[in-house]
Amino acid sequence: MKNYTITLFLFLLINLVFAQNSKFEYYGRFTPTIQQEKLNEVNSITDISPQIWSHLAMPNNQRNELEKKRKIDYALGCYLFPLGGYNMVVDYLAIEIVTTNNGKLTTYKSTSDKLTKEQKSALMNADLGSDVQIKIKFKLKNKDYDTADIYKKIMEGQYSITIVPAMEAEFPGGFKQISAYLNDNFLNKITQKGNTDKIRQTSLKFTINEEGKVVNSKIFNTSSDVKIDQLLLEAINKMPKWKPAKNSKGIKVKQEFIIPFGGGGC
User: Fold this and answer.
1) Does any domain span residue 266?
2) 193 pLDDT band (50/70/90 cuts)?
3) What is the per-residue pLDDT across 29-74, written as a single tens digit (0 to 9) for each?
4) pTM for the predicted model, two decimal places
5) Higher model confidence: residue 233 or residue 262?
6) What pairing do the DSSP bridges indicate for beta strands 203-208 and 245-246?
7) DSSP states of 229-247 as a string?
8) Which range marks the domain in which residue 141 is found?
9) Is 186 within 8 Å of 202 (Cβ atoms)?
10) Would you state the torsion angle of the CA atoms of residues 141, 145, 148, 154, taken in this order, to the nearest 10 degrees?
11) Other CB atoms within 10 A of residue 59 CB
12) Orientation angle between helical segments 174-185 and 226-237, nearest 10 degrees
């Protein structure tokens, strides 16, 4: 059996209310993903994710200027602003594709939204479960040769997407049961005053192996409280078996998780 390690970054939205009991609600991942098998079909940054431009992380003032320009140049009649059209209003200066290959970061640049051979190869060889970072530098097109400073500005945005297996590992009972399990086996044991902030700075890493068992668990960001860290590790290590991840061929594969309890991500 082929032995893949799939790193999956989960982001938790947490509602912690410390009264008599701690309450934890797990709402699942809200980060974008792409299946590894789809990577051989990508030829442009929008093939990686059609929503890349609308979800590009960038300063609010630059976002407002970009959207204003797009609505002016890409409107289909009065007050109708369809999705897309960004290629019509931007001139690309640089696009960086940052991937993780065999644990090492690799970066390849281009000056077009079309991927180069090197960028496509890096994507195809990226580690399963790693994040692909896309950094875009651009200027707004100046069709009227306006001398306004807005057209001289170099704008920049970033986007990340996680490579996942065809079928991800699944906890029995889904999100609701993960919440219940962690409430019963961890949070309800540390209800003392002052623990809330400690928990919110904590994250841990563990792997679900091909048999669905938790292995290789460790504290990723400590709570700075040995007892809290130990209770969390004990709870994770005693978790029931998960339904293991599978690749597109139905072969069971490992899947690694990093869970940050503060909701801010890794």
Assistant:
1) no
2) low
3) 667 899 988 998 999 999 999 999 999 999 999 999 999 888 888 7
4) 0.72
5) 233
6) unpaired
7) HHHHHHHHHTPPPPBPEE-
8) 37-164
9) no
10) 30
11) 11
12) 140
